[in-house]
User: Which sequence fits this backbone?
């Protein structure tokens, strides 16, 4: 342990050891930082790859939710236009569209948490300072996925609130 750069101290340490006993070989001198970096290198790669695949998976899930809700809104254009013509406010139309997302989110969370519980043993070997059954991690990921689903659904729901009743009634 030194207050200066450890590489600069290496030659001084070698000279001191040789002055006491020249027959002691001094090889493979490394800093503790480099030893820790070497031992954690593969783990860091695993974390980066898992994070990348998680981001790709989340993006695909959001794209799927967006496209399904966009399709549903386009299929229900006449109904939404009729509701708007009869006095439905934009907030009510948005709530109608987002209400359809509730069962999807509920089933997704239920199956996802069940699958994560089954696979927690495998994942616990890859996680540092977090057990596979960490309730905080499950709650955080669940919240992130709910927010991602709501974010993906926002654009189609917002588009539904802007449907003009006259155009929607003529829509074929």
Assistant:
């Amino acid at each position: 342990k030194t207050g200066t750069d450890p590489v600069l101290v290496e030659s001084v340490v070698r000279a001191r050891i040789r002055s006491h006993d020249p027959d002691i070989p001094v090889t493979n001198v490394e800093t503790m930082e480099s030893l820790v970096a070497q031992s954690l290198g593969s783990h860091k790669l695993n974390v980066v790859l898992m994070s990348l695949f998680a981001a790709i998976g989340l993006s695909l899930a959001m794209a799927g939710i967006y496209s399904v809700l966009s399709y549903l809104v386009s299929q229900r254009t006449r109904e939404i236009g009729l509701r708007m013509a009869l006095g439905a406010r934009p907030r009510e139309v948005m709530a109608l569209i987002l209400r359809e997302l509730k069962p999807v989110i509920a089933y997704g969370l239920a199956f996802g948490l069940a699958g994560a519980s089954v696979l927690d043993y495998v994942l616990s070997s890859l996680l540092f300072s977090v057990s596979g059954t960490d309730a905080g991690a499950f709650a955080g990921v669940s919240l992130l996925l709910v927010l991602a689903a709501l974010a993906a659904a926002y654009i189609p729901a917002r588009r539904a609130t802007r449907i003009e009743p006259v155009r929607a009634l003529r829509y074929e």
The mean pLDDT is 84. Residues 32-75 form the longest helix (44 residues).
